[in-house]
Every structure is written in structure tokens, then in C-alpha cells.
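User: Sequence for Quaternary ammonium compound efflux SMR transporter SugE below. C-alpha cells please.
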Amino acid sequence: MAWIMLLIAGLLEVVWAFSMKQSHGFTRLVPTIVTLVTMIASFALLSFSMRSLPLGTAYTIWTGIGAVGAFLVGILVLDEQVSAMRVLAAILIVAGLALMKLSSAH
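Assistant: C-alpha cells for Quaternary ammonium compound efflux SMR transporter SugE:
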């Protein structure tokens, strides 16, 4: 159950990062509210997952999901630049996440 909560927390991190971008520095009400609500939910689920997962594992997975997810949203939704170097960086993050998961006893 901790891994499911952590996955959802990571996905919510992507949502709040995107909505924060859409809030234009917290000047637009709806994206600002979405940012704050999903941020709180993401942190809460991360906290619950840390009850049974090691800190380093949980935090690394959470930030990794957020980083790669935000990278993909940037490319797919916001039409941000795609380059071989950026894609390689994302692949290395995913490889690190896989290794972190494999190294966890949970």
C-alpha cells in the first residue's frame, strides 16, 4: 500500500508543478487552488508512505516521478524543447528510480 500511496503522491507532484506554472506566479485563482490542494495531498501521501518505506527511498522515488513527469508534461503539453541530452537525463533518472526500488527491502 505504501508504494501505491507513493506513486499517487508522485503523480500529484506533477499536477501541482503543472498547475503552479499555469498560475502565473499565483496570480490566477483556479490554478493556484489546484496547486495548493494537490501539493498538500502529495505531501500527505508521501508522509503516509514514509511510515513503512525508508526516507531516502520514498523521497527519491517521489521527486523522480515528479521530475520525469514534469519533464514529459512540459514536452507533451507545453511544447517545451526536446533534445537528446534532456531525454538522456530523464532516462538516467528513471534508471535511478528503478535501482532505488530494487534496492529497497519493502
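The mean pLDDT is 94.
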